[in-house]
Write a structure and sequence with these properties.
The chain has 655 residues and is mostly helical. It has a domain at 486-654. It has helices at residues 2-14, 20-23, 36-56, 58-74, 77-99, 107-120, 154-165, 170-191, 193-204, 207-213, 219-239, 242-256, 260-275, 279-306, 314-319, 338-355, 365-373, 381-395, 414-432, 448-477, 486-492, 506-516, 521-528, 533-544, 550-563, 588-597, 629-635, and strands spanning 126-127, 140-143, 146-149, 436-437, 446-447, 498-502, 568-569, 579-580, 619-623, 641-645, 648-651. A 4-stranded mixed sheet has the order 9-6-10-11, covered by helices on one side. Strands 1-3-2 form a 3-stranded antiparallel sheet. A two-stranded antiparallel sheet has the order 4-5. The longest helix has 30 residues, at 448-477.
Length: 655
C-alpha cells in the first residue's frame, strides 16, 4: 500500500510539469493547458516571496498563524457552518447573475432545461407543433412528433421545480449549497471538527466549485447524491446497521439517474471498501443493492416511456451503440483509443491544478507531497484517494471531452478531494510545527510551518484578488449572444404574440434539415465533420424537392463519408466548423448560403429556452431557415413574424 500511495503522490507532483503536448499528443485535451514554464515561474516567485517574508517576519507570522487556528477552532461549529454556507450561496447567486446572466451556455444544459419544462407541464416528452428543423437542437431525441432530451431524468426533474417557481437559476444554488453542507458533515465524520471547518473554508474560496455550481450542468446534482452516498457509507462504517447501507444504495441510484458513469466508478470503490469488512461488508453490499434497485427501476420505467425499451437510454437511442463506453469509433467519426482516453484524463488532472483554486502554482501539490512523504495514512485517506482517482480512470473509457468551465468531468471528485485536502493541511501543519529548516547562507533557521503557511496564504491571496476575479471576467464577457434574452427583448420593443426567427449559420441550418429528414444524429455529425458541406446541401435539396427519398439520402451520405476526400475547415462565413473542398467549384446555391451568413448569425441552441414546452407562448423563437420560414408562419398564421438581426426586430415582409 505504501508504494501505491507514494506513486499517487509522485504522479500528482510531476504531472503539471510534464510536456503534455508531446506526451499526450494523441489526445486533443492538452490544448489550453498552463505551459510548464508558467508553473515554474509561479513556483519561483511564490517560493521566493514566501522565503523572504518568513525570514523577515517570522515571529509575527507565527503569532498570526496561531491566532487564526485558535479562531477557527474556537468558532462554534454550527455558527461557522451557517456563515460559510451563506457566503457560498451568496457567491453562487452573484456568479449566476453577473457572470452567467442567469443563462445556460452549454448545449447539455439547454436540452435538460427544456426537458425540465416538459416535466413541469406534466408530460414525459414534448410535442413538436411545427416542422422539427425550426426548433431541433442537438441532444434532443426526435421520435415522430415527440421529442425529449437524451439525458437521464433526475436532473431535469429537479430543474422542473425551479421552472414551476419561475426561477430555474435557484435550483443549482440550492443543490450546490446542500452539497457544501453534506461535504462539511462528511469531513467532520472522517477527520473531526477542525478539518470540517477547513473543508468548508476551502469551498468558500474554490472557484471551480463555485463557477460550475452556479451553472445548470448535471454535475451539480450528481455531486450532491454522491456526497450523500459517501456520508451514508461513513455512517454505516462507524455505526453499522442496514439502514445506512440501504441509504448508500439509494443515493448511488439517484446519482445514476444523473451521471451513470461517475456512479459506476464510485460504486466499485465503495464495494471494494465494504468487502474489507468480510461478512458484515457483504451484507452491507446486499442492502445497498436493495436500495439501488428502487431508483434503478424508476430509471428503467422512464426509458420505457421515452425510448420504448427499458434498457435503452436516450443517448443510445439518439446516437447508437457508438456512444457507449470503450475504444471504438465515436458518434462523430473519430477513433477513441486507450492512449486518447489516458491523455484526456491526464490533461484534465493537470487542468484541475489550475481551475481548482486559481493559484499561480499547481493546486494539487500539497496532496502530492503528503502522499509521497507521509509514513502512515489516516483511516479514510486511502478511500478518498481511491474515490478521487476512480472518476478519471472511469472516464478513460468515455470518448467525449470538453473543458467547459474547467475539467467538468472531474467535478464530482471534489466530494473526495476537498475533505482529503483539508485533512492534509491540518496534518501537514501539525507535522511541520516546531521543525526548523537550515539552509546554507542563512543566518537563522527557517520555521517550516511558518514558511508553508506564508506560501499557502500567498496562493490564496493571489486567487482571491486576481485569479478568481479574472476568471469571473472571462465568463462574464464571453458568449455575449447566448446571454441575450430575445423573447424579453421583443417584449421590451412592443413585439407581442409574434414569431421571431433567429439567424443561424449555414452549417446549423444544414444539420437541422438533415435531422428533420430522418438522418441519424451520429451520421449527421460524422458527415458534417468530414464531407464537403456544399455536397451535403445539394443532397438535402434533392430530398426536399422530392427527387430522392429519405432512404436514398441516407445511403448517399453514408457513401460520401466513406469515399469522399476529407474536406478542409475554412472560414468563409465566420463559422469555424464550415468544411469545403478547395478542388471543387462552389455551387450557386452554396455561394448564396455563404453570402447570407455574412449578414451575421448566432447560435440557436440556448434560445430554444425562450419558448415554453409547448412552443406556443407569447413569443415563439425559431431558427431562421430562410425560404422555409413561410412554413412556420402558416402554422402561426395569426402572429406577425420578425427576423432578429443585430439587436433589431425586422418584420419578415421587409426582409
Amino acid at each position: 500500500m505504501r508504494i501505491v500511495l507514494r506513486s499517487a503522490g509522485l504522479l500528482l507532483l510531476v504531472l503539471p510539469f510534464l510536456p503534455a503536448q508531446r506526451i499526450f499528443g494523441e489526445s486533443p485535451a492538452p490544448a489550453g493547458l498552463v505551459p510548464v514554464r508558467v508553473w515554474l515561474l509561479g513556483m519561483f516567485i511564490v517560493l521566493g516571496l514566501a522565503l523572504v517574508l518568513s525570514l523577515l517576519f517570522a515571529v509575527q507570522l507565527q503569532r498570526a498563524g496561531a491566532a487564526v487556528m485558535r479562531w477557527v477552532r474556537g468558532f462554534e461549529d454550527g455558527r461557522f457552518a451557517a456563515v460559510c454556507i451563506c457566503l457560498i450561496c451568496t457567491e453562487l447567486v452573484l456568479i449566476s447573475a453577473f457572470a452567467f446572466s442567469f443563462r445556460y451556455h452549454l448545449i447539455d444544459s439547454a436540452a435538460q432545461l427544456f426537458q425540465a419544462r416538459i416535466f413541469a407541464g406534466g408530460e414525459v416528452s414534448g410535442t413538436l407543433p411545427a416542422p422539427a428543423a425550426f426548433f431541433y437542437v442537438q441532444n434532443m431525441v426526435l421520435a415522430g412528433s415527440r421529442w425529449y432530451s437524451q439525458y437521464p431524468p433526475l436532473h431535469p426533474l429537479l430543474l422542473a421545480a425551479g421552472e414551476l417557481l419561475g426561477a430555474s437559476w435557484l435550483v443549482p444554488v440550492v443543490l450546490s449549497g446542500l452539497s457544501a453542507l453534506v461535504i462539511y458533515a462528511l469531513a467532520g465524520r472522517m477527520y473531526g471538527a477542525t478539518a470540517a471547518k477547513i473543508t468548508l473554508g476551502l469551498l468558500v474560496v474554490c472557484p471551480f466549485f463555485l463557477f460550475v455550481g452556479a451553472s445548470y450542468m448535471n454535475h451539480i446534482s450528481s455531486m450532491l447524491f454522491l456526497a450523500c452516498a459517501l456520508y451514508a457509507y461513513v455512517r454505516w462504517n462507524e455505526d453499522g446497521g442496514g439502514g445506512w447501507s440501504v441509504a448508500v444504495g439509494v443515493f448511488l441510484g439517484c446519482a445514476a439517474l444523473v451521471r451513470p458513469l461517475s456512479v459506476l466508478a464510485v460504486g466499485i470503490v465503495l464495494c471494494a471498501a465494504g468487502l474489507a469488512f468480510g461478512r458484515r461488508g457483504a451484507r452491507g453490499i446486499l442492502c445497498g443493492a436493495a436500495g439501488l434497485a428502487v431508483p434503478a427501476a424508476l430509471g428503467l420505467y422512464y426509458n420505457k416511456l421515452t425510448t420504448g425499451a427499458a434498457f435503452l437510454p436516450g443517448y443510445l437511442r439518439l446516437w447508437g451503440a457508438s456512444h457507449g463506453l470503450g475504444f471504438h469509433e465515436t458518434p462523430w467519426g473519430e477513433l477513441h483509443t486507450f492512449g486518447r482516453g489516458v491523455g484526456s484524463q491526464a490533461a484534465d488532472l493537470v487542468r484541475l491544478n489550475e481551475y481548482l483554486f486559481e493559484w499561480p502554482v499547481p493546486a494539487l501539490l500539497p496532496l502530492g507531497l503528503y502522499f509521497f512523504f507521509a509514513r502512515k495514512a489516516a483511516k479514510y485517506d486511502v478511500l478518498l484517494l481511491a474515490g478521487f482517482f476512480s472518476i478519471p480512470l472511469a472516464y478513460v473509457f468515455y470518448w467525449h471531452r470538453d473543458a467547459f468551465l474547467g475539467p467538468r468531468f472531474l467535478f464530482c471528485s471534489l466530494v473526495f478531494l476537498l475533505p482529503l485536502y483539508a485533512h492534509v493541511l491540518e496534518r501537514g501543519f501539525a507535522a511541520l510545527s516546531g521543525r526548523k529548516l537550515k539552509m546554507r547562507g542563512m543566518a537563522q533557521p527557517l520555521s517550516a510551518d511558518v514558511f508553508a503557511g506564508v506560501f499557502l496564504a500567498l496562493c490564496f491571496l493571489y486567487a482571491v484578488f486576481f485569479g478568481m476575479p479574472q476568471r469571473f471576467m472571462i465568463y462574464a464577457s464571453s458568449q455575449a449572444s447566448a446571454k441575450e434574452d430575445i423573447a424579453e427583448a421583443a417584449r421590451r420593443r412592443g413585439v407581442a404574440r409574434a414569431v421571431v426567427f433567429v439567424p443561424v449559420s449555414w452549417g446549423n441550418r444544414l444539420i437541422a434539415g438533415l435531422r428533420e429528414a430522418g438522418v441519424s444524429a451520429a451520421l449527421v455529425e460524422k458527415a458534417y465533420r468530414s464531407v464537403d458541406h456544399c455536397l451535403l446541401q445539394q443532397m438535402l435539396n434533392a430530398y426536399s424537392s422530392g427527387r430522392i427519398d429519405g432512404a436514398v439520402l441516407i445511403e448517399r451520405i453514408e457513401r460520401a463519408t466513406r469515399n469522399e476526400p476529407r474536406a478542409e475547415r475554412v472560414m468563409f462565413n465566420g463559422d469555424a466548423s464550415l468544411r469545403l473542398r478547395r478542388d471543387l467549384v462552389l455551387a450557386a446555391v452554396c455561394a448564396d448560403e455563404l453570402r447570407y451568413d455574412q449578414q451575421g448569425f448566432i447560435d440557436y441552441t440556448v434560445h430554444l429556452l425562450e419558448n415554453n414546452a409547448t412552443l406556443n407562448g407569447d413569443i415563439v423563437v425559431a431558427r431562421d431557415l430562410r425560404a422555409r420560414n413561410a412554413e412556420l408562419t402558416r402554422v402561426f398564421a395569426d402572429r406577425p413574424a420578425y427576423l432578429y438581426r443585430k439587436g433589431e426586430f425586422v418584420p419578415l415582409a421587409e426582409e
